[in-house]
Amino acid sequence: MGKSGVRRARHLAWAALLASPASFAQELPITPLPASVTLGTGGYTVRDGAAIGFPEGDPGAAAAAKLLAAHVKIERGITLAPQPNTAAIQLVRDDAVAGEEAYRLTVDAKGIRISASGDHGLLYGAMTLSQLLSPDRAFGKSVLVRSAAIEDAPRFRWRGLLMDVARHFQPIEEVYKIVDQMASVKLNTLHLHLTDDQGWRFEVKRYPKLTEIGGWRTPPSSGGPVGPKHGGFYTQEQLKALVAYAAERGVTIVPEIDLPGHAQALAAAYPEFSVFADAPEVGHDWGVMPYLFNPAPEGIAFIKNVIDELIEVFPSTYIHLGGDEAIKDQWERSPKVQAQIKALGLKTENQLQSWMIEQFGTYLAGKGRRLIGWDEILEGGLPASASVMSWRGEKGAVEAANQGHDVVLSPAPLLYLDQLQSNLPDELNGRLAVQSLEKIYRYEPVPAGIDAEKAKHVLGAQGNAWSEYMITPQQVQHAYFPRAAAIAEMTWSAKDRRDFAGFLDRVQPQIARWRRSGMEVADGAFAVGYQLQGSRGDALRANKATVALATQAPYGTIHYTLDGREPTAKSPAYKVPLSVKPGVTIRAAAFDRNGNATAAPRAFDTSRAALLTRTTSEMAACPGGSLYLRIPLTPDSPANTPVYNVDLFNTCTAYPAAPLDIARGFTVSVARLARHWGLAHDTSRRRDPYPATMHGELVITARCTAAAADKSIKPIVIGSFALPDPEKAPNQFSFSGTIPEMQGEDDLCFQFTSPASAPFYTVEKVVLTEGAAK
């Protein structure tokens, strides 16, 4: 099935979900799972036009009622009327409900009552009720809410997502959408990564060039004309409005200005505040760049001025000042910085970074704020005023918490939402280490190494969606949802109450709500994947393909067809691997107990031509390599396709177990990409071979894996093609050739030898052919 076909099928699948009734036997369909639920008998029917009452003169209750009505209008299709008086749906203040975020929700035959002492408690009670009003997807109809008593409060106070608007700028309207859908599952912290090498997105009125220059970058070239500049920024007025909007939904915006590294956009705008006062371009490469902020007195004063404007816009307690991936080469090579280290009585560059963090932490403390940074700020000694966000695993959190510092867990790669959600071939851009819905759900935010009495320092956890490879709002949403629901439950619900099987049941209506709200929600956790039993050569020789079907998340029953029709809940149920003659296309989808498709159908073509073809998603790393990323053809492409799996350190990919006794020809489709990865100290890991021609070659070898393992074996070169001039050739082209008669199966390696300064090449698709190549 083509990508457009998959998208159409997804819409049909979700339309079925929204239109079809479902029943939930024991658990109410609430995500995240409440602390306590006591079910009763009977219930209360909420009809179109029902009133939501709240105390007159209570703006917090009024905001919660308004938000409830807005969600129900979109998700259920009925209109509720907030009003400052008594009604059958009532929001009330009750000091007996302890905790700002705690609430009590009761439903009986007389009506529905949400009680809380704090504004956020009323808000979260309203969000729970909005979920109860849309469990069966019967849009536009009255709903019977089952009698129940719910007592609820969160386990952690930091339940967050990071949105990286620095690498790829997102319109402010798209940030609003994320805030709305965070509120729906009680996530309460949006960490905005506002600055990086590739862009400065926060307007600083005292330093306008930060956005005039630092807000725009020229994309890297893959040969030929360079595309238009990418960028943008948010005015302070826009951000103040966003902060107010988020606050009404219980979401705190935590801004991040990244220092001392990730500062190339700053250096481009104000070179006098960089180490060597040179003026680079705003960065267009991803990864780690060498430019650092200059910690001289004038630089410290500059950042304090920026902080002054930042805290005027963002009232959050925490201000994030980065501290990550600051390679210290510039500081090491600067006589002035070295003199400063000596004058301060310090010994290392890491201690200088800690000194700098302490300057800003003390400054923020004097204004009633607290500094938080990435775990690298521990390396030179952690200032007393600082809190730590641990991303390099959990070690930083353990160390900081045991020292008495507050911590937020955000370990890579697990809570990095730019990692792919599945290994399906139609996944979008991202890093290739799959972080599944289940893996994220099962994460425990209190690491084992934290002393019991220090566990109170764990504020919570957040998922980070870095945007090097997420360009469009839809790609960002795809990365967040539905994994945001797993993060919500992991940080809200009690550890001993969490249950992944129950979560899968409860997240289905939440997915439908997000879809109803217009969000792009990934279905990879529930989609059918295919695994050919044995090799492709085995299937071709036996003229029979045996294929196992499975979904990543253990939910639903797989139904399939072999006749070209789309599967339904009435199609045959999958039980054991299917054995079919080559030429049959298997189409399959999983269905829940009510007959609703949980994902769009996926297809597997068993034709001989398909079995001889491998796309980029089906290629493997060459010996000694590792595929890292799935990236688009051009760095800022608004389209979802095409995308390519690549190894940053070796422009070589392999066709595993090629049936060389069958194949007699090949056509390899090649893509030329911009080489835009800042590898910093990892440059030595690059394994690009030396080019033998002006622009390099594509060298295709058999027995490459065996030769890598045994030096006495010599690889067989079956093709060598000079690469064209990048300035004159298109970004996609192909080469064809013949394969000599060989026995059995072997890996084919496709090695590009383009110069390290040239664009990056990779394989889009390899088609092997039977008989002589044309």
TrEMBL record:
GO cellular component, one term: membrane
Residues annotated as domain GH29D-like beta-sandwich: 544-599
Name used for this protein in its record: beta-N-acetylhexosaminidase
One protein family per Pfam: CHB_HEX_C_1
Taxonomic superkingdom: Bacteria
GO molecular function term, any single one: beta-N-acetylhexosaminidase activity
Organism of provenance: Sphingomonas kyeonggiensis
Domain annotation Beta-hexosaminidase bacterial type N-terminal: ranges: 29-153
Keywords: Glycosidase, Hydrolase, Signal
E.C. no: 3.2.1.52
SUPFAM superfamilies linked: (Trans)glycosidases (SSF51445), beta-N-acetylhexosaminidase-like domain (SSF55545)
Catalytic activity: Hydrolysis of terminal non-reducing N-acetyl-D-hexosamine residues in N-acetyl-beta-D-hexosaminides
Enzymatic class: hydrolase
Coiled coil: none
